[in-house]
Amino acid sequence: MRRSLRSLLAATAVAALVLPLWGATAANAEPPGHSHADKHALRTQAPRDLAIGSAAWGQRDLVQYDRHAPTKYQQVLGAQFSSLTPENDMKWDAVHPAPNVYDFASADALVAFARANHQQVRGHTLLWHSQNPAWVTAASQTWTCDQARAVLEDHIRTVVGHFKGRIYEWDVANEIFQDTWDNGGVRLRTEANPFLKACAADPIALLEDAFRWAHEADPEAVLFLNDYNAEGINEKTDAYYALAQRMLADGVPLGGFGAQGHLSLLYGFDASIQANFERFAALGLQVAVTEADVRIPLQPGETGPTPEQVAVQAERYDAMLEACLNVTACSSFTVWGFPDANSWVPDVFPGEGWATIFEDDYTPKPAFTAMLESLRDATPGTSPRRG
Ligand code: G3I
């Protein structure tokens, strides 16, 4: 069991009385399970059983790497994080650009960087409706379900097999449910996802086999469902909860549920994230925040956000982290890249930005500081980190 300090204090009626004493102790003590080697690094302040990750794009930022002369970006990435997620390098279009061609060059570079920096790697992703290569999109127009299954099985066995023993969590299925606002409401993406489309008569059978193939290729990796708008309890996460129950009942090696955590200050924060994590954990699953960022609407001509926006951004990052800290089954908390210049947000949401935890000169933002303090204050956790 691990808890965030804030939650512990809120849970006790005498919180106000013990706060000064506790604060002094927590700031000075070296609780078991923590390494205080670098008091300014997220990875060293985190409980031992919680990986703190960032997305990174190997092709762009890690292919050129000299451990004796790292770039500033590489230095921060190595110092701050204990886990990396390939932002693009393990996606279909990157690793499987032609029917019989696999290209692991940039993904291997990312894994090599991670090993050199004693980091774990989250695999991302094996079954998704986006970033599929042109040959998949073209061929899928005429696929039978058997043909789609054969292509997916080959891909999963080859990719997961290639990285066997070097990936601790795999996002096997990404964004497989539509949203409430999509045509037809919350349901499996049997139109946009070419594999689910070819097997629309029984998409769950395909999905379940995808997890089985991945498990056979690397029995040690924990296999995740992953999605956005999946933080709180809502219609979409209800659908995931029902799917997870079904998969577990069918004996499928499902191991985790990931909430991406792409938030915007244009919307409120759904405080049911901890309760949502708890219900998946009660099924025996791990949970994770897999792609956290908090984008801010910026006024044209303004150079940055207002102090109020900066403060709310910090609260949002920290609230997601605290939900994770408060659920022992939360195995990893990953931010979706840094600094802002590397963020996907401005390309996709014009007028929004400043979404990551570091400014472009790597100055830590208040969101970073809030997270660092929550990690520092958290109780240690009981199980050693796998890796
Ligand atoms: O493929 C070309 C590459 O060859 C070229 O070097 C590069 C030059 O800029 O462009 C490449 O395409 C880019 C592609 O990623 C890489 O395959 C696109 O421009 C770029 O827009 C694209 O964006 C990525 C996006 O997924 C695509 O859907 C983002 O970097 C990445 O952060 C984003 O990540 C997703 C998660 O995987 C799933 N959840 C949502 C999240 C944000 O959209």
Summarize the topology.
Blueprint: H1 5-10, H2 15-28, H3 42-45, E1 51-56, H4 58-61, H5 72-80, E2 83-86, H6 92-95, H7 105-116, E3 120-127, H8 134-139, H9 145-162, E4 169-174, H10 194-198, H11 203-217, E5 222-227, H12 235-249, E6 256-259, E7 262-264, H13 273-281, E8 286-297, H14 307-325, E9 330-335, H15 345-348, E10 352-353, H16 366-377
Parallel strand pairs: 1-2, 1-9, 2-3, 3-4, 4-5, 5-6, 6-8, 7-8, 8-9
Antiparallel strand pairs: 8-10
Helix pairs in contact: 9-11, 13-14, 14-16
The chain binds ligand G3I.
What are the main properties of this structure?
alpha/beta; glycosidase; eight-stranded parallel β-barrel; TIM Barrel; globular; 16 helices; 387 residues; binds ligand G3I
**Fraction of residues in helices?**
40-55%
> Total helix count?
16
| Nearest-integer average pLDDT | 91
Named at the architecture level, the CATH assignment is Alpha-Beta Barrel
Order of helices and strands: HHHEHHEHHEHHEHHEHEEHEHEHEH
CATH first level:
Alpha Beta
Q: Give the overall form.
A: globular
**For the terminal residues, how far apart are their CA atoms?**
19 Å
Radius of gyration: 21 Å
Bound molecules: ligand G3I
Main sheet attributes: strand count, strand direction, barrel closure: 8 strands, parallel, barrel
Q: CATH homologous superfamily, by name? A: Glycosidases
Structural class based on helices, strands and sheet pairing: alpha/beta
What are the low-pLDDT stretches, counting only 5+ consecutive residues below 50?
13-36, 382-387
User: Can you tell me the CATH topology?
Assistant: TIM Barrel
Q: What is the count of distinct domains?
A: 1
Strand content: 5-15%
Counted beta strands: 10
Spatial order of the strands forming the largest sheet:
1-2-3-4-5-6-8-9
